[in-house]
């Protein structure tokens, strides 16, 4: 999924919630959408709504009831479902460990790199007949990270 250019307006922000975020309590105008994608069924129905006036779509990474272990999450279907409802940016929230004591459990961290240790799942949208080369030197959108950092500072997080 590519990032929109600076002049494009974000249509809807996709949020993938993990163990620490299984719902959006302040979401208004809620609508549930059952999706089927070329990659299968997402982990949960897509929840559409407005969060402080911003259109968002939300998927529960581990499924409704937190029943899908990390290695069995269909990340491609989750992303494709969010794209199908108009998401132009994606925010993924996770409860994970850290490689540094500077970020103890409970810390709010905006990452710029990560190590994915999950196995047993497809990690690409490409396959036989569709070859693509995607740079992974900077896997996190710098623009989105800057916006989130400013919002966290404003909220004193």
Automatic annotation (TrEMBL):
Family as reported in the entry's similarity comment: Belongs to the PNP/MTAP phosphorylase family.
The keyword Transferase belongs to this UniProt entry's keyword annotation: yes
Keywords tagged on the record: Glycosyltransferase, Transferase
Domain of life according to the entry: Bacteria
Single GO biological process annotation from the record: nucleoside metabolic process
GO molecular function: S-methyl-5-thioadenosine phosphorylase activity
Record-given protein name: S-methyl-5'-thioadenosine phosphorylase
Any one GO CC term of the record: cytosol
InterPro entries on file: MTAP, Nucleoside_phosphorylase_d, Nucleoside_phosphorylase_sf, Purine_phosphorylase-2_CS
Domain (Nucleoside phosphorylase): residue spans on this chain: 12-155
PROSITE patterns the record matches: PNP_MTAP_2 (PS01240)
SUPFAM superfamilies (alphabetical): Purine and uridine phosphorylases
